[in-house]
Amino acid sequence: MKIILIIFGFISLFLGIIGVFLPVMPTTPFILLAAACFARSSDKFHQMLLNNKYFGDIVRNYEKGLGISRRIKMRALFLLWFSLIFSSVISGSAAVFMILTAVGAGVSFYLLRLPTLHD
Q1: So what's the pLDDT on residue 119?
Q2: Residue 8 — pLDDT band, cuts 50, 70, 90?
Q3: Are 29 and 19 in contact (CB under 8 A)?
Q4: 44 and 71 housed in the same domain
Q5: Backbone angles phi, psi at 117, to 5 degrees
Q6: Could you give the C-alpha distances from 62 to 4, 39, 75, 89, 115, in angstroms and in order?
Q7: Which of 53, 98, 99, 102 matches a 20 to 30 Å C-alpha distance to 81?
Q8: Which of 56, 1, 17 has the alpha carbon at shortest distance from 47?
């Protein structure tokens, strides 16, 4: 099971890094998912992520229960809904629209319930 979590952690980390450069791809949720996978599978990789110059603060603040900044929350919500609406329009399917709306509502609810870090 540990090897699966490590692989999933690196996939999530890779997607988070891509999210830094692609405006429609959120970074923070993938980095936090990678941290959760590494925390349960490899202390070495978890520490690597905690000590990372770019992502370490996000992970440490989240793990300490301090939350994520308002700017990151708003950006994540904007990009989430932008990509879901764009995907719905491209698909043209009512079923896809309903599924994406449900997923978007769930993710939005989760993000809004996270504590907001006051910088």
Answers
A1: 63
A2: very high
A3: no
A4: no
A5: -75, 125
A6: 23, 13, 17, 34, 9
A7: 53
A8: 56
The single residue listed with the structure tokens 């300490």 is: 64
Helix (H) or strand (E) holding 54: none
d(CA 62, CA 22) in angstroms, rounded, equals 23
Q: Position of tokens 């629209």?
A: 97
The model's pLDDT over 56-69, given as tens digits with 9 standing for 90+, comes to 998 999 899 888 88
From residue 33, alpha-carbon distances to 7, 39, 44 in Å are 12, 10, 16
Q: Does 60 lie in the same domain as 10?
A: yes
Same-domain pairing of 8 and 29: yes
pTM (predicted TM-score): 0.72
Token pair, residue 89, equals: 């329009």
8-17: long-range contacts (C-beta < 8 A, 24 or more apart)? 8/33, 8/37, 9/33, 9/34, 9/35, 9/37, 9/38, 9/41, 9/42, 9/45, 10/34, 10/45, 12/37, 13/49, 16/55
